[in-house]
Design brief:
By secondary structure, this protein is mainly α. Helix content is 61%, strand content 0%. It contains 8 helices and no strands. Helix 5 (165-195) runs antiparallel to helix 7. It is elongated. It catalyses: Cs(+)(in) = Cs(+)(out); Rb(+)(in) = Rb(+)(out); K(+)(in) = K(+)(out).
């Protein structure tokens, strides 16, 4: 990620945090002030009704009650037989507490108070969180595959009805979200509302806070003494499947965003290529219409020096070496000059080889006719070999 993109994302997150802080402050601060005022009014009324109790003794008692409630004590239990009604650390509640550790929810309604428990929690979380992550990935994969397989049958029905494929994809995505929300959000909302005596808003608030692993702890299932001990373990299994569904949804959204990003890059590459081609075509047309105002082409280098005449029957090449275009009609050989050639045989051999090479490269180079020789022209001597066997060849 580029530095500019990272800084822009950081600024956006900070702006989001500040705006959230302002909204929460405006919504919750008046309620906090009202609760504090109610506490002070209740304290004054209690001291007025019980003049034998001093203000300091009442303050100490209130502080003790607050600390014990934070440690897991339940004020609804019987005062005479509280040990028999303790629900903080029975087997079901302890299982649910362990589940909130490895799921990283951490409601906070029950906290560890001993040093040994805190030390064990450190290693328990370090091992359990990665283990639960692997389980969550596997369950999310299977759950997402099952939902997509069921939705695939519905897509086949839509395709048989000749529904456009684009609309079928949209309908399948909507069905995937609706089925998951029905199974893991709406149904648990009604169940918790009935079992915990919560309102519908409180129940759906708890469901969303739990499945997003926020876990404030103001609403926790199974804290009432009348609940069965197996109630909280069942709630943990709901958390497992709900988190797996949310993970599957996030994976699907990530795959869709990557596919859209690749498609967008491909389309932008095609548009860039078309724009470059159009620009080149328009530039060529403008250059052709400009005519004399266009820059002169680079001067071609002649094959023969200007101080020496070209050999008879050999003309300048019609195009440069490596030119992609061939001349439509080769030039006719120039008429022979009266003067004799001064080129030695090596230069003629080089010209012949150059002509062959130019012809092979696509440049039409007329060659001198073989078998006919100008009168008064010197014979082309044969190239001497390394060793002469027998008599020397006649020139």
């Amino acid at each position: 990620m580029r530095s500019t993109t990272l800084l822009a994302l950081l600024a956006l997150v900070l702006l989001y945090l500040v705006s959230g802080a302002l909204v929460f402050q405006a919504l919750e601060q008046p309620h906090e002030q009202q609760v504090q005022k109610d506490l002070e009014d209740g304290r004054d009324k209690f001291l007025k009704d019980h003049p034998c109790v001093t203000q300091e003794n009442l303050r100490i008692f209130i502080k003790l009650v607050a600390e014990t409630l934070g440690g897991g004590a339940n004020p609804d239990t019987s005062w005479t037989n509280s040990s028999n009604h303790s629900t903080a650390w029975n087997l079901g509640s302890a299982f649910f507490f362990s589940g909130t550790i490895i799921t990283t929810i951490g409601y906070g309604n029950t906290a560890l108070q001993t040093d040994a428990g805190r030390l064990f929690c450190i290693f328990y979380a370090l091992v359990g969180i990665p283990l639960f992550g692997m389980l969550l990935a596997g369950v999310g994969d299977r759950l997402g595959s099952s939902l997509r397989r069921g939705i695939g049958h519905i897509e086949a029905i839509f395709l048989k009805w000749h529904v456009p494929p684009g609309l079928v994809r949209i309908l399948s995505a909507v069905l995937f979200l609706l089925i998951g929300c029905l199974l893991f959000v709406l149904t648990p909302t009604f169940v918790f509302s009935y079992l915990e005596d919560w309102s519908k808003l409180e129940a759906i608030y708890f469901v969303i806070v739990t499945l997003t692993t926020v876990g404030f702890g103001d609403y926790v299932p199974g804290t009432s003494p009348r609940q069965n001990s197996a109630y909280q373990p069942l709630a943990w299994f709901w958390i497992l499947f709900g988190l797996a569904y949310f993970a599957s949804v996030l994976t699907t959204i990530g795959n869709w965003l990557r596919a859209v990003s690749r498609r967008t890059r491909a389309e932008m590459g095609g548009l860039t290529a078309q724009a470059a081609s159009w620009t080149g075509t328009m530039t060529a047309r403008v250059t052709q219409r400009a005519g004399p105002s266009a820059p002169p082409p680079e001067k071609e280098q002649p094959l023969f020096p200007s101080s020496l005449p070209a050999p008879p029957g050999v003309t300048e090449p019609a195009c440069r070496p490596g030119s992609p275009e061939l001349p439509k009609k080769a030039k006719t050989p120039s008429p022979p000059t009266a003067s004799a050639l001064d080129y030695p045989s090596e230069n003629l051999a080089f010209i012949d080889e150059s002509s062959d090479t130019q012809s092979e490269r696509g440049c039409a180079l007329p060659r001198a006719p073989r078998g006919r020789r100008r009168p008064n022209a010197p014979r082309k001597p044969s190239r001497p070999s390394g060793r002469l066997r027998g008599k020397a060849r006649p020139v």
